[in-house]
Amino acid sequence: MRHRYTHEQELYIRSNIQGIPYKELAIRFNQKFGTEINTCQLQNFSKRRGLSNGRDTRFPKGYKSPFGWKKGECGSESTQFKNGHTPHSYKPIGTERVSGDGYVEIKVAAPNVWKKRHVLIWEKENGPVPPGHVILFGDGNRRNFDLDNLILVTRKQLGMLNQKGLIQDHADLTRTGIIIADLYGKIAERRKSK
Fold this sequence. Notes:
Elements: H1 7-16, H2 22-33, H3 39-48, E1 96-98, E2 104-109, E3 113-116, H4 117-126, E4 133-137, E5 150-154, H5 155-164, H6 171-193
Antiparallel strand pairs: 1-2, 2-3, 4-5
C-alpha cells in the first residue's frame, strides 16, 4: 500500500537524503515516525520528487574485476561463440512457423525477419499491401491460402466486420459482410454529421 507522506516527513527526507543509502534512510525514517515503509517505497518517493542521495553505485573508471575479467568478457574462452558459429536455434530463410495467434509465417531475411504467408501469397499476385489495409481470410480458416480466399480490406472495415460478426465460414459471405460493414460505416458517418 502506498504511504502518504506528511509535510514533516517530506522535509525529513529532503534534509537527510544526501550521502545515506536508501536502506539506512528507510530504517531511520521508520524509527522516527513509527512507520513501516520499505527501501523501494523510499526510492520511488525520492524519484518522484527529483531527489537523489548522491551516491554513485557504478564501478569507477579503471576498476579491476576480482575475477580477472576484462570489459566485454563473461566466462571462459571455451564458452564463447567463435566467428562463423551458427547457433542451434538458427532457422534458414524459407522456414515456416506458426505464430502465437495462429498465423503461418515464413522467414524472409536474416537474422530474424518473418512475414505472414498469406500476405506473401497476396503480394506476389497484387503487389504490396497498401498502408492502412490488411489481408483477411475470407472463410476464417488461417490455413486456407487459396488466392480467392484472401481479401484486401481496410482496418476500418476489419474493425466493423469483427464488431458486427460479419466474417463468415465462406469467402463470398464474408465479401457480402464487407458491403454490409461499409453500409454501417456510412450510416455512422451520417449520424455524426447531423
